Protein 1
Amino acid sequence: MKEIAIGIIASMFFAVTFILNRSMDLSGGSWLWSSSLRFFFMLPMLFLIVILKNNFKQVIHEIKSNPIQWILWSTVGFGLFYAPLTYAASYGPGWLIAGTWQLTIVAGVLLSPLFFQTSPSDIGSIKIRQKIPLKALFISLLILTGAIIIQWQHADGFTLNMLLVGVLPVVIAAFAYPLGNRKMMEVSGGRLDTFQRVFGMTLVSIPFWFVISVYGFLSVGPPSSDQLLQTLIVAISSGVIATTLFFIATDRARKDQGKLAAVEATQSTAILFVIIGEVWLLSSPFPSGYALLGIFIIIFGMLTHSYFSKHGNQKSFSKKEAS
């Protein structure tokens, strides 16, 4: 239950991404700078936190011990997540981006068979391939249905071009984010705290963002002061606060696939915070009709996830007590 609450708070800060990325695009800012600057701003902030906690050397040691895995999965989890997301925000409407992003709550569940779980046996520890938690998958699909219903009122203007530039990049991002996160939890093996892991992933993904920024400078020139400020806000709110909180929640739930799916499903609540933010900051009309039904389904789905996560933990605890 605590992990789900942390995930919901993280999604609130992550909602800033959708609002400000769209705002930057409407004011003429390039997605190349919106994506790369976020991680350039994140790096010194995370570095300061890790240094103050005297944890820097341990991060470097972990990266040196497995550099290829670190670079690969950090680039997937951060690069192939955020670059396509900001690209889509530049070419597709905000409702389409926010709605399509909800695929990530199902993507995380479907990726379960790619990972193994260590289990004790008579001959020592063995690795068992994880199975898709069907109950969690069903609830996540229910939440995804709610997100689709919220966006249904906008579907009349949907075009093939929106599919290519507004949907496909977000689908890539929706799978890349949980894949990179889960793989890095596996690589780090619990030896690093959340700040160390986020810092390490940011550090080794910098070459990717350097290439993006160089291309941005050559193609569109330097970023405006307004884009610098808004990207800094995104870096603090979404990059440092939201990412750290979300990774804390997934770290706590990583040994239970059903619970982990529930935590990943909390990202669906970002769409609720986006709606609130647009009504409050952009004077958008308050949702009604189908949108209210979709909101109700998302809330119901999250409550159901919370119930089964807590109920499953209680059953596991009872079994341990009995044994």
Protein 2
Amino acid sequence: MSSTVIPSPPAVTLPVRGSESTFPVRRVYCVGRNYAAHAVEMGHDPSREAPFFFQKNPDNLVPGGRPFPYPVLSRNVHHEVECFVALKNGGADIGVNQALDCVYGYGVAVDFTRRDIQDEAKAKSRPWEMSKAFEASAPVSDIAPATEIGHPEHGAISLVRNGTVIQHGDLSQMIWKTAEIIAELSRYVCLAAGDIILTGTPAGVGPVERGDRIACSIEGVGDLAFEVI
């Protein structure tokens, strides 16, 4: 029997609503500037340009409402509430009409960004990874199976900080819809079961501080609440 030279890292799994079984995570992809109003607030043209993608690491996901630890080396960490998609299968060059057949379910996520580190990277034309793929940078809800909720095309999406609504939009405002995102991403990589895709954030992104209470909701999908520590 073969063995590993160091202990194997624990598998990353997410809870599934109404089930004792969990969803194993393979990769985590994110879509940038997929809501027009957010593109404008970030200083970009909101036209329907081709989507672009970046990644987080599977172990950046924080399920179950656990606290978000404010990261080191940053003094400007921003929240970005998003709907995420969990895939049950995949492939390369998936057609738009077949893309939703790949979806297992949906959930609520927050893509935390070390904005100061990201701004510095942009200014120097360097990669963003250190601003996006850091420890605990993506709190997530449980997964709502598509067999129960369907494939939501609209529904209010919001983030409340300390009782005040900060972000509010609707899934219908996504520039690129879920099926289009899956199809386009599959042109670049071979998608597979276990992949998670964060689909972009509406306007209103802003900073968090230690002690903040965050509550997120997507109508028809789920809720997510946690504390910044």
Protein 3
Amino acid sequence: MSERSWDVAWQEALYGPDGFYRQPAGPAAHFATSAQGLPGVGRILARAVATLCRQYALSSIVEIGAGRGELLATLHEVDPALSLHGIDVVRRPPGLPGAVAWSTSPGGAALPDDLGALDGVLVLAHEWLDVVPLTVGEVDEDGSLRVVHVTETGQEHLGAPLGEADLQWCQRFWPAGEPGDRVEVGATRDRAWADLCARVRQGVVVGVDYGHERTDRPAFGTLTGYREGAQVQPVPDGSCDITAHVAVDSLDTSWRTRQRALLTELGVVARPAQHEMSRTDPGRYLAALAERSAGLSATAAQGLGDFWWFVREIGVRRQPSTSTS
């Protein structure tokens, strides 16, 4: 049975001609992103992105990996004055507001050739880098890092030693541990992020993803799959999503913070509903309860609140200024 390195198999499984992300049902049929999953959370995220746009004095948003345009549609509702442009591997989704522009991309780290010289724009990469395929390595019995290969049925074997460039990345950001420990080599994502940032002449690039730093790298990695709402073994046959968390500290950024901190700072999380409103205005009270519930979901520890927001400023500064983490 043929086997390939994980990065090659992963790319084909998600973005090949019959890849997971090209299927008509779309990823929403298998898992819920924070942009379109829990009720009300997508609107909170849209308000946060719109607020950041205003703080950077920008009026245009380009979303990389826009799925079926769920977040863009909500952004259009939140602020119709924003110029919006979605990019994904599929053609323009039906039902997307006419004011939202759309382009197709090759998928993975590859971006459209004509995406460049972006000026006065906020580029949003929401849950994009976690599905940019990368090399998976494992420490063998002799303590050497070797490339993990995988068959189409998900069976794994160790291949050749990691290349020198990948080894250097690991030495700097994810030092090898004991035999059996795994690393997810983030160099591919570093390059993808750098390429995206290089397309911006003036603006800000905002990434949002689950991630980790050197102090909390998972010994056995984070590679996993999702199918029909359940977490499953990652199998590179196009039947499931394949994802791995992002090494956020290896990216070239201006600042980064957790979602729970940023949403609170931006003031997009509703305060608790006043109970007396239940008597004077029951409808408004129920709406306030729902909005508060969505805010708690979006900022929950060991949940959506653990998302990292990582930002690269290019010729712009945020007002008011923010502290880094």
